[in-house]
Automatic annotation (TrEMBL):
Matching Pfam families: GGDEF_2, HTH_30, PucR
InterPro entries (UniProt xref): CdaR-like_regulators, CdaR_GGDEF, PucR_C-HTH_dom, PucR_C-HTH_sf, PucR_dom
Protein name: Transcriptional regulator, CdaR
Family from the record: Belongs to the CdaR family.
Domain PucR C-terminal helix-turn-helix: 454-509
Domain Purine catabolism PurC-like: 5-124
Gene3D superfamilies assigned: PucR C-terminal helix-turn-helix domain
Signal sequence annotation: none
């Protein structure tokens, strides 16, 4: 392995070379971490030396001298995780790296040292394995270190058929021959431009269109052409041998497998090509998690990324009720990132109540949860708003609420009500205002629903009988009769605000008991 391998897109796609490009051919044999100013004393040569610069935070100038010392120990490369303790390297450090031809790399903050050590060691082990094995013995098309053209050559060798592959995103337009050789784009285009004299379609393979094509280039040549036209334009032509007019099941499976790997490489490349967008996402995620130690580093990142904080905003988290990727997210976010099925963004807001109503409607229509944190007026507020949104999301799932938009302040009351059962008086309130409903009398047979279920609708409608009837899909007079029974059994007056409060508290205490399996 050499230092240049650290910049391969399949290994560390977002490492950035700051200086020392003249030394990219240095042999790399291991990884070590900068844990002391004199760590160079313990180097044996060939190391990738990584660190955050913590030990040089008080004296950045010593960082430059350190580079000279590790170069004398034949270190292969130095990687620095910026934005923890240094937003920029000390002046002259990049120029010195160029003079020394010592590769100097910027490591994004989200990397753990174990991620880097594992990646490098895996690559080195694979190199050793390939050195002692033939290509056929490698046997895995997914191992890191195989480039996509080599993978396609292996497929052609296994199939013993020529493959003509076009993928503009990866710059591929080649013939891959059964002997493992690769012909250039001129030969591939000669085949592609050969007139098709006969064509017939085969059943689609998902999103892949498949045609049989007979080409005439002086001799007749059948090929099976597989075309994927969606997010990654990709075409694979499988040349059939003499006498073959249809690909076999094995050939069909292997071509589709090859297309999957090519698409994966293209999508991976697309994901890492927009470094500015990716850095913006990482910055926002780190800001939410309160990773930055110095406000000046936050301000410097904002300037470099062109981020303008809205006058008033909030952190919003969106997730689908079924656990899939959210079907909707706010479109005007200043910054955002995705993690699994969760979208998190900083969204500018004018009239927060109006936006919550709009988001609530979207949430109900598209079955998504929208958790809204508190107001953000400066960068210090982002972390607090994020944690409020996260806590809100936890509550709305815990309370089993319907999809929609919920603000932290709204659900704080739910959290308070959910913990009422811990009070010494809770059991008495429950026994007085709710327990009798669980032992309904003889008249219950004439009711369309248990009174305890009526209480749920009554509390959610703020004791409005008409709204309660509408929510239950019952006639208003039927609900009125049920309410009379409720007053009689509990010996309460629903027009009395104290009785209403008691019934509301008892309902929430009962929910808490039920959720936790507590017998009062």
């Amino acid at each position: 392995m050499i230092a240049a391998d650290l910049l391969r897109h399949h290994l560390f796609p977002d490492f950035e070379l700051l200086g020392g490009s003249g030394g990219l051919n240095r042999a790399l044999t291991s990884v070590s971490v900068i844990d002391a100013p004199d760590v160079d004393r313990w180097m044996r040569g060939g190391e990738l030396l990584v660190g955050s610069g913590y030990i040089f935070r008080e004296d950045p100038g010593a960082f430059v001298d350190f580079l000279t010392r590790v170069n004398e120990r034949n270190v292969a490369a130095v990687g620095i995780k910026l934005d923890r303790y240094h937003h920029q390297l000390p002046p002259g450090m990049v120029n010195l790296a160029d003079q020394l031809a010592l590769p100097l790399l910027s490591i994004p903050m989200h990397y753990r040292w174990t991620d880097i050590i594992e990646g490098v060691q895996t690559f080195i082990l694979q190199e050793r394995h390939r050195a002692s094995c033939s290509l056929d013995e490698v046997g895995s098309f997914l191992e890191e270190g195989l480039d996509i053209k080599r993978i396609l050559s292996t497929f052609a060798s296994r199939l013993q058929r020529t493959l003509t592959v076009q993928c503009s995103q990866l710059g591929i337009c080649n013939n891959f021959l059964p002997d493992g050789s690769v012909e250039d784009s001129e030969e591939a285009m000669r085949f592609i431009k050969t007139p098709v004299v006969q064509e017939r379609g085969l059943p689609k393979r998902g999103q892949v269109l498949v045609n049989l094509e007979l080409r005439n280039s002086g001799t007749l040549q059948w090929s099976a052409s597989y075309r994927f036209l969606s997010d990654t334009p990709l075409t694979v032509h499988l040349w059939l041998s003499e006498g073959e007019t249809v690909p076999s099941a094995r050939q069909d499976r292997m071509v589709l497998r090859a297309m999957t790997l090519v698409r994966a490489s293209a999508l991976e490349l697309a994901a890492i090509s927009n470094r500015s967008a990716m850095k913006k996402e990482r910055f926002f995620e780190a800001l939410c998690l309160d990773i930055y130690n110095d406000p000046s580093i936050v301000e410097a990142n904002m300037r470099e990324l062109g981020i303008v904080l809205p006058k008033r905003g909030c952190v919003v988290m969106v997730s689908s009720a079924d656990g899939s990727s959210p079907r909707w997210t706010p479109q005007n976010s200043v910054m955002s990132y995705r993690l699994a099925d969760m979208w998190t963004g900083l969204v500018p807001v004018g009239d927060l109540e109006q936006m919550k109503r709009e988001w609530d409607q979207k949430g109900q229509d598209l079955r998504v949860y929208v958790a809204v944190g508190g107001p953000v007026r400066n960068m210090e507020d982002v972390t607090r708003s994020y944690h409020e949104a996260k806590r809100t999301f936890t509550w709305l799932r815990e309370f089993g609420l319907e999809p929609g938009a919920y603000a932290h302040d709204d659900l704080s009351l739910y959290a308070l009500l959910d913990n009422l059962f811990r009070l010494p008086e809770a059991k008495g309130v429950y026994q007085r205002f709710f327990e009798p409903l669980l032992e309904d009398g003889p008249s219950s047979s004439r009711r369309s629903m248990p009174l305890k279920d009526l209480v749920r609708s009554l509390v959610s409608s703020d004791f409005n009988a008409k709204q309660c009837a509408k929510g239950l899909h019952l006639h208003y007079n039927t609900v009125r009769n049920h309410l009379d029974d409720l007053e009689e059994i509990l010996q309460v007056d629903l027009s009395n605000p104290h009785h209403r409060l008691g019934l509301t508290l008892a309902f929430h205490i009962g929910n808490s008991y039920q959720k936790r399996g507590i017998k009062p």
